Amino acid sequence: MGGVSAEAVLDLLPQTQCRRCGYDDCRGYAQAIADDGAEVNRCPPGGAEGVDRLARLTGRPALPLDASCGHEAPRALAVIDEAWCIGCALCLKACPVDAIVGAAKRMHVVIDELCTGCELCVPVCPVDCIAMIGASGDRTGWNAWDPARADQARDRYARHAARLGTSGDAAAEVQVATTRQETIAAALARAREARAPR
Q1: How many CB atoms lie within 10 A of CB 186?
Q2: C-alpha to C-alpha distance for 49 and 38, rounded to whole angstroms
Q3: Is the domain 76-135+167-195 a CATH 3.30.70.20 member?
């Protein structure tokens, strides 16, 4: 790979930790580029400019963004509908940068300036109370993000992983979240049925 280090690649990624690239996190993708020759066009949050940066670093061609990973779009921000939030806390663990605060059985809220727009909180919510809204107007990729935000997200992700003692087995963690989500959904269905007029 011409001696390009995973750290050098990681420094060029936006650190949203969104997993759209197909890897567990930005570090996993950086490692795959450096060690396994993974393509440099798998990061939608970095967009075309991100692909160009990675191509220059690695000496690889700047291919169009891989459509199977998503498309370049304005930065999004998660918003929780307070009226629907049941305080299940699934989104707290799902957020890779701890941008969501709350407690079990209490309403949760997203801290706007910390949200990376990764969307990982959306599928774990059993009541669909999380929506993604535009946060950067028409600006996309690195025009909608900046190195300071990337550094902040990288630091917060490291603290999040340390706090949770993340095993690195993303598939197992997703399965646990799915099981919890199914359990909560079943409990909600029973509660609705019990309240339904007879």
Answers
A1: 11
A2: 18
A3: yes
Q: What is the CA 114 to chain-centroid distance, rounded?
A: 12
Backbone angles phi, psi at 56, to 5 degrees: -65, -40
3-state percent helix, strand, coil for the chain, nearest multiple of 5: 45, 10, 50
Could you report the per-residue pLDDT of 19-58, keeping only the tens digit for each? 999 999 999 999 999 999 999 999 999 999 999 999 999 9
| pLDDT higher than threshold 90 for residue 133 | yes
Rounded to 5 degrees, φ, ψ at 112 are: -50, -50
Round to whole Å and give the CA distance between 105 and 111.
19
Tokens of 32: 């795959």
Both tokens of 154, joined, read: 């990288």
Q: Would the pTM count as exceeding 0.90? A: no
pLDDT at 195 > cutoff 70: no
Q: Rounded to 5 degrees, what are φ and ψ at 48?
A: -60, -40
**Ranges of CATH 3.30.70.20 domains, the chain:** 76-135+167-195
The mean pLDDT value for 188-198 works out to: 62
| 6-69 under CATH 1.10.15.40, yes or no | yes
* Residues across the chain: 198
Judge whether residue 1 has pLDDT over 70: no
